[in-house]
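N-acyl homoserine lactonase family protein
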Amino acid sequence: MIDQTGEPNAGIAPFELYALRYAMHGGRTAKDNFLYADPHESGANLDYFIWLARRGDEVFVIDTGFGSNAAKARGRTLLRDPKDALALLGVEARTVSQVVLTHLHYDHAGTLGDFPVARFHLQVDEAGHATGPCMCDAKARAPFDVENIVAYIRSLYAGRIEFHRGDRELAPGFWLHAVPGHSAGLQAVRVMTERGWVVLASDATHFYANMERRNPFPVLFDEAALIRGYSRLTELAPSLDHIVPGHDPAVMRAYPAASTELEGVVVRLDVAPSLSWEELSR
């Protein structure tokens, strides 16, 4: 039974929750960001994030981003390595024991080697898709990076992958939820914070406007499932303002910086946004 109230559950200590911006991509058109759009219209930039949930000594890193090789190969601007972004919050990647991989696309599952002791949490359907016959199609494998998949396989053979099929509670106040569509086994993360449950959508919606307009990001596995996923996100969150999209630069405007020094780099998602969903999705 999903608790849809905005208030923290009695007896569940809240997590601190952060979005860490590590890369960006500009010069996009509307067609780059929406499946149904005019290719002549300009589009918003993409920001690339990893996320951190922390409760005392309990640390969950959500996604591991990409490094310099992928940035060069794909024409992205790497602002800082994901491990260096975590270090800004006093977290050393080499000591992190729990990492959620929302899916295995290149920008969410790179730099696995920087997390040498981590246990990685992944949906079964994502693993099967990324290493199965669908990858015979060059278009289907384009969002993946073969070296990331090799690193994933090495982690699997080292006994460091924990598979999940559907929804799963990893700790009190920390849930995984299968929301396929963008990829075969994408999972969102629901975290209890001081402002209640916050849903990290990852690529279940790249931008606020993808979900608001029911107009998906054009990289997808199953359009119908992705559209259904928008309703699933709404079910999981106490309000739209508790849903955080995976790549929208507006996240950095809506939420307060973790500190003055981290302005434009790290924001707190456990604090209510200063802009409404309606304002952010325009």
